[in-house]
Write a structure and sequence with these properties.
The chain is an alpha+beta fold and 101 residues long. It is built from 2 helices and 4 strands. About 16% of the residues have low confidence.
Length: 101
């Protein structure tokens, strides 16, 4: 079995800056769309509670997938190879199936 690779650390932060909790996302091999889905679900759950999700220690492969998915989460940390530091703010998309009956 391949050793686990850390993809990123996800932290839920309240509006006042209080850290609510966090989790390390890791797996054997490179991250895939299931990892992006996990980040999206965490971000959605945080937003529904009025908090935000920040990502640190993001691996290059995970960063690339997040960029491709245009996921609206805040990536905190050192920019890579001349990139500018950025925070991406997103909004939750409302789907008719999400609305109460």
């Amino acid at each position: 079995m391949a050793p686990l690779q850390r993809w990123c650390r996800a932290t839920v932060v309240e509006p006042d800056g209080t850290v609510r909790g966090g989790v390390v996302l890791e797996g054997s091999g490179a991250p895939d769309l299931a990892a992006v889905d996990a980040v999206a679900r965490l971000a959605l759950r945080a937003a529904r509670r009025g908090a935000r999700l920040t990502l640190t220690e993001v691996s290059p492969a995970m960063r690339e997938l997040l960029d491709l998915a245009a996921l609206g989460v805040e990536v905190v940390g050192q920019p890579e190879r001349g990139e500018q530091r950025r925070a991406v703010q997103g909004q939750e998309r409302v789907d008719r199936r999400d609305l109460p009956a």
